[in-house]
Amino acid sequence: MAAAQGRLSDGAGGMDDAKGTEEEARHKGSHHGNGGSGGSTAPPAFAAAVEALRAARLRPQIEVEATRAPQRLAPHAYALEAAVVDGDEDLADGRLVLLHDPAGHDAWHGTFRLVTLVRAELEPEMAADPLLPDVCWSWLTGALQARGLTYGEPSGTVTRASSHYFGGLSARPSASQIEIRASWTPREGLGGVPDTAAHLASWCDLLAQVAGLPPAAPGDASVVTLPQRRGPQSR
Q: Which residues, 6 or more positions from 103, have their beta carbon under 8 angstroms from its beta carbon?
């Protein structure tokens, strides 16, 4: 699986940033492995939220596994990384981090926070669309709303970048990439535990949409997804 490398920050919390590194990737575990402070010493609400993430059932094209969680964003954290896979090709990848501060956080307006990084390569024609950032942000909020999830304090950025190759790399075609970084506060239910399984499922819906996969179930025919990339990406 391609690790989602990059900077993860909780824009609403004003807390320290955490960088995805090769060291974190080397410490990856299984989906039921150690993705952070989800063990017996964690608060019951956080342990329940983590267990729901581990037990979630997802569409088969999405491979999910636990990875080392950032240590400085909150007292308790659990992290997952995922890739949308078609044969030997990774169509999109991302990282989702569950944060928990039992004392609450003023900027979160709650005790839990979800932080994400999602990225995929684009066709040049799609990358040139001036409305693309707004559309990608609407995919995130729409994925949450489609599953009836209530959330607060959303914040984030949508970035597109282009790479052009020269010299010894000039044979490579130009490439464009979209990157969505976001965070939001999930509504807490019974026992102060948010429905993390549903939030994970909605996040996977976003990943699938960015990757260009059709919806898992019949939906609105007006929904637009990114076209799949022309060439494979090595895994």
A: 111
CA–CA distance, 195 with 200 (Å, rounded to integer): 9
Pair of tokens at residue 224: 């637009």
Q: What are phi and psi of 38, to 5 degrees?
A: -105, 15
43, 9, 91, 198 alpha-carbon torsion, rounded to 10°: 30
Query: CA neighbours within 13 Å on the CB side: how many for 64?
Result: 24
- Burial track 104-113 (b if 16+ CB lie within 10 A, e otherwise): ebebbebbbb
pLDDT per residue over 122-167, tens digit each?
A: 777 777 778 888 999 999 999 999 999 999 999 999 998 888 888 8
Q: What is the pTM of this model?
A: 0.77
Distance of alpha carbon 90 from alpha carbon 82, whole angstroms: 10
